Amino acid sequence: MADGLAGEPRIMRLQVIGGGKMGEALLGGLMADGWAAADQLHVVEPDGDRRVVLADVLPGVSVGDSAVAGVDTLVAVKPHVVADVCAGLAALGVPRVLSIAAGVTTAAMEAALGSGVPVIRVMPNTPSLVGQGAAAVAGGNAATPADLDWAAGILGAVGEVVMVEEVLIDAVTGLSGSGPAYVFLLAEALMAAGIAEGLPADVAVTLTEQTLLGAATLLKASDDPPAILRENVTSKGGTTAAGLAVFEAAGFRDLVADVVAAAAARSRELGA
Q1: pLDDT > 50? residue 139
Q2: Number of H helices, E strands in the chain
Q3: Topology of domain 179-271, per CATH?
Q4: pLDDT at 177 over 90
Q5: What is the distance between the alpha carbons of residues 156 and 164, in angstroms, rounded to a whole number?
Q6: For a FRET experiment, which of 54, 208, 220, 227 has its CA 20 to 30 Å from that of 8?
Q7: Is the pLDDT of residue 118 over 90?
């Protein structure tokens, strides 16, 4: 719960460097979850027009173009500017840093921040924007279990969180970090296929959206693994079997493995 008595100034609990969609989603989630009050949060955004938007959608949150000294910090900027951001944070004496920048290692951030500053690296994904994210958390050399729990609490406000060793973050990126795009591509293809079979576009869209949502919800709620759920839909010689046979003949499983491997490899390249 938020700290402070009524009428007293509250202690700033977190600042977010980078007011993009992910930073906005995290701030909104933290307030909705009761992790912090609006006046305990600060967001740094260099673009003036975007600051106006943030002030409108996050009422009560401090919005500015410069970071605050001595405050826990979440870095949500493009990978190529993380080093400069961390160098600036070092001068401000921030107590710990949580980064969602793809491909940037904790070692690289520690080098810019100086020794002893706990750094936690997270790979979230875009369903965090609707409170359904999947995130993996990994700690650097100075990060304690308490620091990891702190980071998990932040990401837990917008979805599910798992703890992994940092060496696995690239694999996480390939699977869940980039994963929503794979699902969206499947959605595009299903919609187009439905239209090609004669369905009106709005009908194809509705059926595709609900099919993906329903299947994901069933997968999450069921104790059965996906293979059993698939078999439950598939009658021998039936329509589903005919469709799945095309997937298998095209090497669908190998294709998915190659897709995840390619995204993971690119994540490693970004961190090299």
Answers
A1: yes
A2: 11, 8
A3: ProC C-terminal domain-like fold (1.10.3730)
A4: yes
A5: 15
A6: 54
A7: yes
